[in-house]
Design brief:
Strand content: 5-15%
Number of strands: 5
CATH topology: Rossmann fold
Radius of gyration: 16 Å
Shape: globular
Strand order of the largest sheet: 2-3-1-4-5
Distance between the termini: 11 Å
CATH architecture: 3-Layer(aba) Sandwich
CATH class: Alpha Beta
Largest sheet: 5 strands, parallel
Number of helices: 9
Order of helices and strands: EHEHHHEHEHHHEH
CATH superfamily: P-loop containing nucleotide triphosphate hydrolases
Length: about 180
């Protein structure tokens, strides 16, 4: 089983990457979904759960839970060929995944801040902003988690400064190559 850790800053194109990979047969395990599941179990909001899980079990508990979830999925279905991880934020998480999965690679989706802000301003998700200063506050928070170090040290970098169709083609080619 190949495990691919995917990272990138807000608006870089991760969702398109995951959608394209799922069309090719990959499974996606979202670290955010794991927090949401734990929040539902605890009867808490996700922000509280993310904080308390880390206080109770250590800073990298979500990555550890992700490892376990992937192992459980594979135990249930030995035919799983490719799993993608959504939500990697720190270099330690990359190391944890490398330690647990022999066939692990990491990929970053990159687009400039100007391109990403333009996309975010247009897509209209609930937590998106049309204010550049607010965008930069979130950007700096993400960078504070260590995501910039992850982006700069991944095995592969896919640039997304192109059209949507061109990016989908790049992703499809990457996924097909990695799933072989």
């Amino acid at each position: 089983m190949k495990v691919i850790g995917v990272t990138g800053l807000q608006g870089s194109g991760k969702s398109i990457f995951f959608d394209t990979a799922m069309e090719k047969g990959a499974l996606v395990v979202s670290m955010g979904d794991i927090i949401r599941e734990k929040a539902a179990e605890r009867g808490e909001d996700t922000g509280t759960t993310a904080r308390t899980l880390r206080e109770e079990f250590g800073q990298y508990i979500v990555a550890e839970l992700t490892v376990q979830k992937i192992k459980d999925l594979f135990e249930e279905d030995k035919n799983i060929k490719t799993v993608l991880i959504d939500g990697i934020r720190s270099p330690y998480e990359i190391e944890l995944f490398k330690e647990n999965f022999d066939d692990f690679i990491s990929v970053s989706i990159y687009a400039s801040p100007q391109t990403r802000f333009k996309r975010i301003s247009l897509r209209g998700r609930e937590d998106d902003t049309t204010d550049f200063d607010e965008f930069m506050v979130r950007e700096n928070r993400e960078l504070g988690f260590g995501i910039g170090n992850v982006v700069s040290t991944t095995d592969y970098l896919i640039e997304n400064e192109c059209s949507l169709e061109e990016f989908k083609q790049k992703v499809a080619e990457f996924i097909e190559k990695e799933m072989d």
